Amino acid sequence: MWNFDLQDLEELHPVIERLYQKKAKLDSSRPLPESALRRIKTDLSLEWTYNSNSIEGNTLSLQETQMVLQEGITVKGKSLREHFEVFNHEKAIDYLYTLVKESYSLRSIDLLSLHGLVLRSIEDDFAGRLRNGGVRIVGANFTPPNANKVSDFLDELISFVNDNPLGLNDIVLTTIFHHKFVWIHPFFDGNGRTVRLAMNLLLMRKGFPPAIILKTDRKKYYESLNQANKGSYHKLCLLMLQAVERSLNMYINALPGNNYGDYEPISSIVSEPDVPYGQEYVSLLARQGKIDAYKEGKDWLTTKAAVKEYIKNRKRIR
Question: Could you tell me which Pfam families the record lists for this protein (predicted)?
Fold first, then answer.
């Protein structure tokens, strides 16, 4: 279970360093204005609920999810289960926030509690309980372990996260946890939403904002998990880094007097005469994490300064 090679993560070190620099900037600005915190928390919780549920097949749109949560509206043509998934995920986020503190150590009871909230009134017989039978995952390149081994594997994973024997940074450690949890697949249903909650519990205890894996990255997300099953964490870690950076940018951009950078669609950046690259190339740099960029929907945003920095560093290497 613990055989993996992290050498392919070396090229991601500049991205990791950039994120820790942003986190340091955010930490130095604490405490943040209460009004800004409330707004960002509300926005992130909504996006978190919408995207995590959508990845699992929930058909409520972002606007419909907001209407269900904030106005209590029942959306015509949508199933009762889909409405429960929205309410339940929001309750799970609320519970997660009660756990977040720097001294927090991961506990199995908290994972079970998160899962219980996710499946409440949907599959009450399974909510908050480890599976006692086999499961198969459509489209995955592995078969989860026998149910008799689930409890022991989960305990091993929790110990690995809490002890961090390899001295991994918080984001890489969370990435490995994410994959191994999915591999164990401790529940009959609700594993995806539970692990995306738990990964943020691990990040938030270290002062990172919650990271949201976007619905538009669903295919990439599943492909990266399959790559991790083969021992390569590069794609999954990059996806995690991009999700963390997006949330960090949201917080930093909300700081009073922020001059961190004006993010624009890449199409706008490359239209300027002093940018020598085309949209396809700059988009590739963004997807690979080689420039400071983040994703909104299907569009990548970056800054002119980020592109200029890449050009300068490339000339220096030559």
Answer: Fic
Q: Who's near 139: CB < 8 A, 6+ residues apart?
A: 222
pLDDT at 262 over 90: no
CATH topology of domain 7-253: Fic-like fold (1.10.3290)
Q: Is residue 189 part of an annotated ligand binding site? A: yes
The neighbour count for residue 161, using CB atoms within 10 Å, is: 19
Q: Is 193 annotated as a binding residue?
A: yes
Average pLDDT for residues 51-61, to the nearest whole number?
97
pLDDT at 259 over 80: no
pLDDT at position 138, please? 76
Alpha carbons within 13 angstroms on the beta-carbon side of residue 61 total: 7
Residue 297 labeled ligand binder:
no
Round to whole Å and give the CA distance between 122 and 103: 33
For residue 163, say whether it is annotated as part of any ligand binding site: no
158: its two tokens: 């929790």
Range from 120-134, 197-211, 247-261, 270-284 carrying the lowest mean pLDDT: 247-261
Phi, psi for residue 187 in degrees, rounded to 5? -120, 160
Q: How confident is the model at residue 52 (pLDDT cuts 50, 70, 90)?
A: very high
Name the active-site residue from 83, 115, 185, 234: 185
The first and second tokens of residue 181, run together, are 């949890």
Residue with tokens 């199409």: 267
Is 191 annotated as ligand-binding?
Answer: yes
**199 Cβ neighbours under 8 A, 6+ residues apart:** 174, 177, 178, 211, 240
Determine whether 185 is an active site residue. Answer: yes
